[in-house]
Design brief:
Two copies of one chain form a homodimer. Chain A is mostly helical. Chain A contains ten helices and no strands. Chain A has helices at about 5-35, 40-45, 50-55, 60-80, 90-105, 110-125, 130-155, 165-180, 180-185, 190-210. Chains A, B: Keywords: DNA-binding, Transcription, Transcription regulation.
Chain lengths: ~220, ~220
């Protein structure tokens, strides 16, 4: 292994280490809420020392923000990017809705914390640096929501979706999906097919409400 | 005024006093979150002393639970009772959905805290007495959700609603509506007509997805 390959392997290790810390933090925040979680709790779930956590993150708030940012990345990567594909708008939207529903289940700790993040943001009381980071996270969320707004607008232009208040409907649509993090907890022995069935049921409902060919 | 009338007036005053404390608590919890709110904050919003708050409630947790219970009462009274009226199921459901949407806006502090209450409940870490109260609140919520399950089941039996997984759809429907407490904040000069327009848009969307006569 030459020096740059070694350096690269080191970078990969570092990225893996960071991802493991972040996963543990997401689980800790989900379990006990932001206020009640300590760096010790995160280290405990990680099966490591506090030093390991502090190697990657300098504070609980930084961990919280990065969990939030990672959830936004998951959404944009897993569902938002579908908006840019070349297909009829209603088909793209249907796949985006299903993908978002599944993301809520398969990445539950991250997505759950993302919902808690909204709370924290609304509650205010942060430092200037934290507010800057929060603003960046809000921008990521807005960009993600905009993908849904765009695709629904295209669906209306294509005649597949009835004329409606796009922003209001996107709030309802994403609210119904984000609410999954409130009621969903994986069951013993649950399979991908079980999750797919739940996502399909919600998707059918939420897409049907948009169709033009309705009463 | 005879003695019983005076006693009754006293009871009314006490109920009004209690309602005012509860309203202040709901606003304080909404503004700062449960953890960051003190009895002092509630007294401050009320424009009264801590003693006034303690006259009605012995702890912050008790206040929180009563805010939650009041929000459940508002929902059952304002929307849930429509389920028992004599009318086609889809008509009743449509009025329940619109009423729930409007309740989220007009009683925002209570309803917002009710959503936060879910968080606290999920996070665990309460005393046995608090867990008993939480279980009662969860029973109230379940009874309320059951009204929606019943009416949709009746709508399917009447042939107006397509066959679907009723519990899953109720979760989507109420999630879309409860999410209002995340994005909605009253605007300067907003009117009842503005709120009605938002509620109507969401209601149309959420009811259309259920109709039998769809693709």
């Amino acid at each position: 292994m030459d020096r740059s390959a070694r350096a690269e392997a080191g970078e990969d290790d570092k990225a893996d280490g960071r991802a493991a810390v972040l996963e543990a933090a997401a689980r800790a925040f989900m379990q006990d809420g932001y206020a009640a979680t300590s760096i010790d709790d995160v280290a405990g779930l990680l099966g490591a020392t506090k030093g390991r956590v502090y190697y990657y993150y300098r504070s609980k708030a930084d961990l919280f923000f990065d969990v939030h940012r990672e959830s936004m990345r998951q959404n944009m990567e897993g569902a938002g990017r579908i908006a840019l594909e070349d297909a009829p708008a209603l088909d793209r939207l249907e796949r985006m809705v299903r993908a978002h529903a599944l993301l809520m289940m398969t990445h539950l700790p991250f997505q759950r914390v993302s919902v808690l993040g909204v709370e924290m943001h609304l509650a205010g009381s942060t430092t200037p640096r934290q507010r800057k980071t929060l603003n960046e996270i809000v921008e990521l969320r807005d960009a993600y929501e905009q993908r849904f707004v765009d695709v629904i607008s295209q669906g209306i232009a294509e005649g597949a979706i009835r004329p409606l208040d796009v922003k209001m409907v996107v709030r309802g649509l994403l609210g119904a999906l984000n609410w999954i993090t409130v009621w969903y907890r994986p069951r013993e022995g649950e399979t991908d097919a079980d999750r797919a069935r739940m996502a399909d049921e919600l998707t059918t409902y939420l897409i049907n409400g948009l169709r033009r060919d309705e009463a």
